[in-house]
Design goal:
Layout (H helix, E strand, L loop, with lengths): L1 H21 L2 H19 L20 H27 L11 H24 L3 H24 L3 H21 L3 H9 L3 H10 L2 H28 L1 H14 L1 H23 L3 H38 L6 H21 L2 H4 L3 H20 L6 H36 L2
Length: 411
């Protein structure tokens, strides 16, 4: 799976110099606003019920979840439209920069994201990391090809959004083409009481994890949306490229390591093998810290100097922003890889502590910035998130100590 993640990362990296020359700063800024806006709703598409799949011994017992997934995605996708039109009319968070026709794609994106979340969780549960790796690579290649074709055809924002939607559904179809009929039959055989009882049994997940993921996503997407609102789509595009370059190791490598960790950790924890869980947890912390040094020291030292040459002179302003973002990206790489421990151990309240702290720190730092420039915004955003990630790591260590106590009882 790691090799697949490296390949996906290489595809994205190699395509970026061409894509930045095919699309304008404004186009890149608008697609970033679109993705950041729908990311919030997409993360809540199934109200975190997907994590319940990791806790069932037999998936036959999880049939009612498919109905829960369906209704959750339908509700969230329709609610997303209401939010979009409200924000567009009120000119909030740069959403008014998007054409009204993008509302149609918002529904598709939320539905597709919800199904993708379920698919990834099933693959993690079965520890089918080869299939997961393969789909990530194909999804990236498909996205890049559509973007390049759309760029040569001067497709602008429409081409960029179409690439995101098509590659999302291509990933889903590849996995679900054999299972879709079986799922429909299973859902039709369910009683309403089965669905209601399932929601009641696992209500802890939507009640605790949904607010947590909402805060988490707000903290991730608000920086760019606020920049789009205050400084315009062009500077939002500049920030988006800087962010994408800096967070590239975390986007692919980090998410891959996170899924592997989630799959193996949940299996050991489900079987109550606490001593093995503790050892696995400790070894992963060491591995993640080592990888962080390997990725982010060279990124800080060498990447900013080559940005104008690689991406074109119009993107030269990204060089300085990358340096400001590296501490945030490095600390995020560490904590995000290990973050599933809260859900699996069902200590979601610890994650809520981090989420609340992160938002408070973000707004505090943005309030006190000396002037509204892209450089000052980036510094404030990065520093607030570094401090929040330190809090995050302390909470992860708190979970580790709980594992140590459980392991001691098994001696």
């Amino acid at each position: 799976m790691l090799s697949g993640s490296i390949l996906a990362q290489a595809v994205t990296l190699l395509s970026m110099p061409l894509i930045t020359r095919l699309f304008s700063l404004e186009d890149m800024g608008k697609i970033s606003v679109f993705i950041n806006f729908v990311t919030i709703q997409s993360a809540l598409a199934v109200f975190k019920f997907e994590n319940v799949l990791l806790l069932y011994e037999d998936l036959e017992d999880a049939k009612p979840l498919w109905a829960v997934f369906f209704w959750s995605m339908l509700i969230v996708s329709l609610f997303s439209l209401v939010i979009f039109f409200g924000f567009h009319y009120s000119a909030l968070l740069g959403v008014n920069e998007l054409p009204l026709w993008t509302s149609f794609f918002i529904v598709l994106f939320v539905l597709g994201s919800g199904i993708s979340i379920i698919v990834k969780t099933l693959l993690v549960r079965e520890r089918d990391f080869h299939m997961l790796s393969q789909t990530i690579v194909l999804k990236n290649i498909f996205n890049v090809i559509i973007r390049i074709i759309g760029g040569f055809l001067s497709g602008g924002l429409l081409a960029l959004i179409t690439a995101e939607i098509l590659c999302l559904f291509a990933f889903i179809i590849q996995f679900f083409k054999k299972q879709i009929k079986q799922i429909i039959v299973s859902v039709n055989q369910l009683k309403r009481t089965d669905i209601i009882n399932t929601v009641k049994k696992w209500k802890r997940f939507p009640l605790l994890e949904s607010p947590s993921i909402l805060f988490d996503q707000l903290n991730a997407v608000l920086p760019l949306l606020l920049i789009a609102q205050e400084l315009g789509p062009a500077l939002a595009g500049l920030f988006a490229l800087s962010y994408r370059i800096t967070f590239l190791p975390g986007t692919h490598m980090g998410s891959t390591l996170s899924e592997v960790f989630r799959g193996q950790f949940s299996e050991l924890y489900r079987k109550l093998k606490f001593k093995e869980v503790k050892a696995f947890f400790k070894s992963n912390i060491k591995k993640v810290f080592l990888l962080t040094l390997v990725f982010y020291i060279p990124l800080y030292l060498f990447v900013p100097g080559i940005i104008p040459f690689v991406f074109g002179n119009k993107w030269s302003g990204s060089a300085e922003l990358v340096k400001y973002l590296v501490p945030w990206a490095a600390s995020s790489f560490v904590v995000s890889t290990l973050s599933s421990v809260f859900s699996i151990m069902q200590v979601q309240y610890l994650k809520l502590i981090y989420d609340g702290s992160a938002l408070i720190l973000l707004f505090t730092f943005l309030y006190f910035i000396p002037s509204h420039s892209i450089e000052n915004y980036t510094k404030a955003i990065s520093l607030s998130n570094v401090l929040a990630n330190i809090i995050y790591f302390i909470l992860i260590i708190t979970s580790y100590r709980k594992l140590s106590k459980c392991a001691a009882l098994q001696v």
